[in-house]
Specification:
InterPro entries: RNA-binding_CRM, RNA-binding_domain, RNA-binding_YhbY, YhbY-like_sf. By secondary structure, the chain is α+β, with helices and mostly antiparallel strands. The protein has a single domain, classed as Translation Initiation Factor IF3. The protein has 3 helices and 4 strands, in the order αβαβαββ. A 4-stranded mixed sheet has the order 1-2-4-3, sandwiched between helices. The chain is globular. The model has no long low-confidence stretch (mean pLDDT 91).
């Protein structure tokens, strides 16, 4: 899923006050963690995920894998927090994104 820079900025502003709802621990990105992320995306659309560990490249890989596996959009990577967005069914989305600007 692709979002524009303006939409990403808008989603980051909405995510500012959110607390992480899922934590990726020492066992990494397991199937159980992916299921929990999917459940929370269905419930909230926009979530924060805390990643334990200091490996920045690993956090970026987690972000990419989550977005690929769950058809979500990466919003941001802030320190040890991943911000991910996935709208619910068409027409029933809770978050209304700004319209893309025409070039």
């Amino acid at each position: 899923m692709d979002i524009t820079a303006d939409q990403r900025r808008y989603l980051k502003s909405l995510a500012h006050h959110l607390n992480p709802v899922v934590m990726i621990g020492n066992n990494g990105l397991t199937d159980a963690v992916l299921r929990e992320i999917a459940v929370n995306l269905d419930a909230h659309e926009l979530i924060k995920i805390r990643v334990l560990g200091d490996d920045r490249e690993l956090r970026a890989q987690y972000m990419q894998q989550i977005c690929d596996d769950l058809q979500a959009a990466p919003v941001g990577l802030l320190g040890k927090l991943l911000i991910i967005y996935r709208p619910t069914e068409e027409g029933k989305s809770r978050i209304v994104l700004p319209k893309p600007k025409k070039a």
